[in-house]
Every structure is written in C-alpha cells, then in structure tokens.
Amino acid sequence: MSYKITSISSSSLPIGEGRGGAPKVTLVGAGPGDPDLLTIKGVKALAEANVVLYDALANEELMEFAPKSSIKIFVGKRKGSHAYSQEQINQLIVDNALTYGHVVRLKGGDPFIFGRGSEEIEHAESFGIPTFVVPGISSSIAVPAYQGISLTKRGVSESFWVITGTTSARKLSDDVQLAAKSTATVVILMGMSKLAQIVALFQEESKGETPIAIIQNGTTPEERIGVGTIDTIEAVVATHNLSNPAIIVIGEVVKESNKLKGFYEEFISKEIR
C-alpha cells in the first residue's frame, strides 16, 4: 500500500494557516500489531486526522479508521531500511500540521516506549504546535500475554525489566548485564542481533537453564515462537529461522505459561533421563 507524500516547508507558513484548520499533532500508540488492540481514544483521534504518519510496526488496517480524504504517509524504519531519518520525520510532522491541520503520528506499541515520541513532541512544540498523546498497549506486555506469559507472578517474579537490546550507538544496553544479575523477568526489545551477547551475559551469571521465549510478529497472524533455555535458545532460533521484529522474554514465568508448560515439562523429563 502506498500513499502520496505532500508537505511544504514549515518556514513558509505562519502558525494557524493550515488548510485543514488549526495545526495540532496527536501521537497515537497503535498497539503491538493486532488492530483490535488500538484504544477507543486512538480510533477517535484517527477519525479526526487530516494527515496520518505511520510506522512499520503499526498495522495498516488501522488506516481504515482515518478519513478517506486524509493523507497517509509511511515513515517506517526497519533494520537497514529507513523510509526517512528521524530528523525528516520530525520535519514532516511540522510541515503537514502547518499545511493541513491535524496530524496523527501513529506509532507501534506505545509512543513513549522506545518510540522516540518525546523527541517528536518536543520538535512540534518548538514551532508552537499543540500536541497530545494517546497511550498505546506496549508490545513488551501484550506479546508475552498472548502466549500466556505473565511477567509477574506471586512466588515466581516480583518485577520485570523492559530493555532495548540495541542502543542509539548500536550496542547492547548495559542494563542487560544488570538485569541478568536479578531474579526479575527480563523483556528485551530489538535484541535479536545481540542474542549471542545476551546469552553470554546470562551464562556468566550461571543462568544457562533459565527459561526463555522469543516471539516474532507477536499478536498478529504471522506470530511465531521459539522456546527453550538460555543454553539452547540460539539453536532454537537457527532451527526455526526466527528474526526481527521479535521480543525476548527471559525468566521463570515463561515456563509458568499454560501454553508453554507442556514443553518445559517434557524438556525437564528428557534432562532427567
């Protein structure tokens, strides 16, 4: 699906002269992939959009909630393939708000969870454009939940970490090493390219038998999952050819899932033999 991209330089229009009414920007969290997980408030925001700028992780079915007359602009990023740089996206938000009025920036998951939403808000507000935020259901919670994985469970896990696997410097976050020392559930987003490093850190903490699940394209019809332990997960990934976009969930709660419990019971019985 492709859409015509239309914008003009923000320097050529004074504030308030957008052709679609007064300029404003609404950041909307699109949720983890299942279009039914968009909030009602998100639907209402899309229904009032003159322009929609949407990410690769935002389900295109959500465009049905926007007016047919609205301009839809794909600004998604994938590893090694960016439709626009972040600076260009920031400028598109401003240009189109000043030109057309209400811009909805539709972002996968929640716009403030590794989504650079705060940067986009700050840029729009620097031009005097009013901004609003509609929170979304974060994939860090929803994707494990679809597999019956409760990130906290009484007597098993008292807390959880949500960590980016790849920082802006393209390195593994130092927080992963700290998380590996804890008893908390660890959820890592954007970490597949660093899986070997993640495994090594947990092995250094003598956690080779800790359960782990990798869920690709979570909450969508293309969802795929690989489960095992820290010691076995790289082989599982290779066997099932798992890749991004995927979420890594590490901790004892993984084997507590009713959907996955049978695998771990069978796995343990084989180990005993």
Molecular structure report:
With 273 residues, this protein is of the alpha/beta class. 28% of the residues lie in helices and 20% in strands. It is built from 8 helices and 12 strands. It has helices spanning 40-47, 86-100, 117-126, 139-146, 175-180, 195-204, 233-240, 261-272, and strands spanning 24-29, 51-54, 71-74, 77-78, 81-82, 102-107, 131-134, 160-164, 185-189, 211-216, 224-229, 246-250. The strands form 3 sheets. It has a 5-stranded parallel β-sheet with strand order 3-2-6-1-7, sandwiched between helices. β4 (77-78) and β5 form a beta hairpin. The longest helix has 15 residues, at 86-100. Mean pLDDT is 89; it is low at 1-16.
- Spatial shape: elongated
Q: Roughly what percent helix?
A: 25-40%
Proportion of residues in extended strands: 15-25%
Number of helices: 8
Give the spatial strand order of the biggest sheet. Answer: 3-2-6-1-7
Distance between the termini: 53 Å
Q: How big is the Rg? A: 21 Å
What structural class should be given to the helix and strand makeup? alpha/beta
| Unreliable sequence segments | 1-16
- The average pLDDT is 89
Tally of DSSP β-strands: 12
Specify the biggest β-sheet.
Answer: 5 strands, parallel
H/E element string? EHEEEEHEHEHEHEHEEHEH
Oligomer: single chain
